[in-house]
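STRUCTURE:
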């Protein structure tokens, strides 16, 4: 659809949604909250169901309902996001514990009323000790192991979801984003058909500018 908009076949487009009691123009009658998570059960108002479950805090994502409404690609993205967020709990707690331990050690080693030292100097020492202490290398090692373990667990999760959603044998060639269109035309070396492309010199110039700004930061 975005390619058709880019080519000028359509002037504008918008995504159609199911009728819902959340829609002020075309509402459905409020039939109450449907709290079931059964895979095959029909939900008369899927938008309201997702609003009551998916958008609430401290609730697991109804991935099957997300898949049925938005498709497998969107559901897999939110499955990855939920898995990553949940797996970050242990590193977060461990990092917080190491930070507090380093801060306590720094306060005991350099009290605030240390002779011949200003308060700003002492606080600076506390901050350095809290973020960089004897436990920091071990924390870095744990983070490396956590990254590997999370990657393997996510491979299992995505394989399970792909099998359950019957898309495990599905392969899709991701098309180029329509926002990145070419500025010149050249023949394709395989098919011989003319196709748009972006000049390499302009690409190098923009990449050099981005790299220069990154170095300044």
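SEQUENCE:
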């Amino acid at each position: 659809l975005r390619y058709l908009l880019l080519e000028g076949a359509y002037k504008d487009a918008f995504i159609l949604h199911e009728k819902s009691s959340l829609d002020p123009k075309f509402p459905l009658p409020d039939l109450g909250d449907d709290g079931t998570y059964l895979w095959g059960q029909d939900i008369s108002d899927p938008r309201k169901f997702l609003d009551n479950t998916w958008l609430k805090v401290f609730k697991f994502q109804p991935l099957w309902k997300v898949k049925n409404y938005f498709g497998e690609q969107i559901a897999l993205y939110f499955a990855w996001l939920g898995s990553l967020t949940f797996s970050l709990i242990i590193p977060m707690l461990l990092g917080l514990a190491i930070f507090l331990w380093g801060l306590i050690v720094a306060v005991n080693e350099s009290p605030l009323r240390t002779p011949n030292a200003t308060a700003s100097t002492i606080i600076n020492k506390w901050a350095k000790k809290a973020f960089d202490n004897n436990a920091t290398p071990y924390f870095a090692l744990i983070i490396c192991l956590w990254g590997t373990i999370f990657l393997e667990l996510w491979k299992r999760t995505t394989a399970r979801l792909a099998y359950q959603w019957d898309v495990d044998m599905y392969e899709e060639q991701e098309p180029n984003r329509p926002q990145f269109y070419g500025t010149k035309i050249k023949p394709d070396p395989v098919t011989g058909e003319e196709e748009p492309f972006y000049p390499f010199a302009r690409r190098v110039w923009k990449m050099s500018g981005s790299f220069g700004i990154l170095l300044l930061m």
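REMARK: The two ends are 38 Å apart (CA to CA).
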